[in-house]
Amino acid sequence: AQPDDDLRTGNSVEALRGAVMAKLAYAVGKVQADASDRDWFLATALAVRDRVVQGWQRSYHTTNTGGTKRVYYMSLEFLIGRLMFDALTNLGLTDTMREALSGLGVDLDKLREVEPDAALGNGGLGRLAACFMESMATLAVPAYGYGIRYENGLFRQVVKDGWQQEYPENWLSFGNPWEFARPEIAYDIGFGGHVETHQVDGAPRYEWFPSETVEAVAYDTPVVGWRGHHVNTLRLWSARAGDPLRLDAFNEGDHVGAMADRVKAEAISKVLYPSDATPAGQELRLRQEYFFAAASLQDLVRRHLKKYPDLSNLADQAAIQLNDTHPAIAVVELMRLLVDLHGMAWDDAWRITQATFGYTNHTLLPEALETWPVPLMERMLPRHMQIIYLVNALHLDKLRAEGHSDVDVMRSVSIIAEGWGQQRVKMGTLAFIGSHRINGVSALHTDLMRQTVFRDLNAIYPDRINNKTNGITFRRWLMEANPALTAILVDVLGKAVLDDPSHLEKLAQHAGDPALQARLKAAKRDNKATLGGIIAARTGIQVDPDAMFDIQIKRIHEYKRQHLNLLETIALYNAIRAEPWRDWAPRVKVFAGKAAASYHTAKLIIKLANDVARVVNDDPTVRGKLKVVFLPNYNVSLAERIIPAADLSEQISTAGMEASGTGNMKLALNGALTIGTLDGANVEIKERVGDDNIFIFGLTAEEVAARHRSGLSARETIANSPRLAEVMEAVSSGVFSPDDTDRYRDFANALRDHDHFLVTADFDDYYAAQRRVDALWRDQAAWWRASIMNTARVGWFSSDRTIGEYARDIWDVPVRAAE
Ligand code: 26M
């Protein structure tokens, strides 16, 4: 028998094996002979969790006694994925655990696949929040992530006859071994009702009497940083019907009515809204936003008041970062808490609020900017609406007093939008006014923020907007996803590269080394063979691991232009069929991504990808030269398989529209060459990897703006490009949809008539860039030289660097020094 301590904390092979066996018996309640892979996964995860908890308690104690400022990262999304290898990697236990389990006849790499993804996010914004949580722990920034514990994460995508179908993703159905339920940490969250005024010491005081109360219950997940030095908390809120909820009604026999109220209350944390661009504008969404903002603020205020007599020093003890405008109502809620509940003077409360909040903007697409109808706000949050009017009036009065008078400027900087017969609350303006720092997520995006959406606010507050180029955690996206590449890097550069990605730069010296190239190529080929197995299993399509793997993985959206890639695929298909004897560079084009359930055109693009795939893959003339794959149900775990197998990274958004991108960074780090526009962080990737090691094409953001102003017709562009004209005609006339020749007629006509995303304008240049890709592929030594330069020069895109900048410029908190 092992001593208890060893079972909880021992890190030897024997200790881990004993710990897993004990968990299987006493926590899962199974004997080994009966244990399924899922049972073994749970037992292993619980054994790993014990080892995380020690550091968690240590970090909690240090933070509590240290008097250091805490960071609160408020996000409606955390796209985490699986946690087992995150924890094992950061605790340095992966190999030990593999050995411990193999002694039990259990394969750790098989258990890895059993863990469901925590898909509590849509795409880039949610994944960024997850990378930031890991980097904040790594840098020992005392931080809490605050969000919602959705019972259903992002839908599971099934492709039936080429069309996307959505199925619920009940990731919690077999239990979640990483979380700790905290039923005792629960706050009342009010909705609706009315506001009463009374006099206190001759001044008006306002009190909100909600008509409905929902309880927010905490669930904590420990987040362990690199080498296990520091562990933070991700606190997610779950909605519970307030306890005596209509108990009177229930007792009087209205069972149905009482239960309906309960369902309405608990609906708040049932499901993630599955759109990454167009706000649905639904009442339930606003309820989610206020629910988690209010719960988080009560939580952090209570923490503050345990230590200090009042809230006057809140901004010295707390930095709250708003991940987009989704939690922006928190600005108003904090004002309400300070003024109405704690009796603080308005001006003091406003100073503290501004000093506490920072706001990150993630998109400038006009349709994505959140606004809420005033009547809805008034009904759901009557006191908040009063506070918004007062904030706005004081804000506009101040500007008038400073001499501003231009009506267009005043309209643009007002929190309230008038028009279409309805007033709306502009959440971006609210977040801007309520924060001391506002940031964009790449250099280009931040410049465009200053020039477009926030132009007038920026002129008035020129120092508020600053840039924080996104980053990715190298633990997940290099070490866990690509152990073969990691081993080579450690071998060539030394172990220090694991702690400090700037060591990657030394790789550039070896870029031309044939031996290194051969090793990297062999590792990539293995990764491609593994992905090939997944492709065959999910789609039945056979792919050749020696072909170029050309990858476009991201949410499906017109601005990301998967259809540009598809039109080029068709042009290439035509060209190969016309001259099949030429030495074409063999390619496998892989597409993966989800469409918002209500986004018709995005779903049609998925259908087009599947239609093109069927025609191309069935055509014997292009066999061995071109394959097209749409891989269903893209998620974090699938990304971890695709990215290490990529040769070419498609980053082809209309310039000015992709705020940053982070997949671009993951792919470059793993040795893929980028074909892309000068958009988002592509610009900064190009500056680092060098013009010779990236394929840039297309209009610049400025040229896109000019083109939109010019009103130039797409029909002319198409007429001037015989290649594009042929492709458009084929799609339009039903060459890829013989079962329904009208399927793409309207789609093609929309491109001819509007082409807002300038697919036709960029087509020829994109096609030419793809042929430069072919040429480089045919010179494998040159290709691998460029690939090595990519890995060598993208160390800067570590989210540790990004978090270091937030800590210094926005939060004013120290970070742990590098090893
Ligand atoms: C809003 C209201 C209702 C329902 C959904 C939303 C919503 C959800 C997510 C709106 C936007 C959402 O995400 C935007 C997003 O993911 N932006 C991406 O952020 C990344 C991280 O900064 C960038 O890298 C991407 O370029 C940017 O598109």
TrEMBL record:
InterPro entries: Glycg_phsphrylas, Glyco_trans_35, Pyridoxal_P_attach_site. The modification N6-(pyridoxal phosphate)lysine is found at K666. One of its GO terms (cellular component) is cytoplasm. Pfam families: Phosphorylase. It catalyses: [(1->4)-alpha-D-glucosyl](n) + phosphate = [(1->4)-alpha-D-glucosyl](n-1) + alpha-D-glucose 1-phosphate. One of its GO terms (molecular function) is pyridoxal phosphate binding. Its EC number is 2.4.1.1. This is Alpha-1,4 glucan phosphorylase. It comes from Lichenibacterium minor.
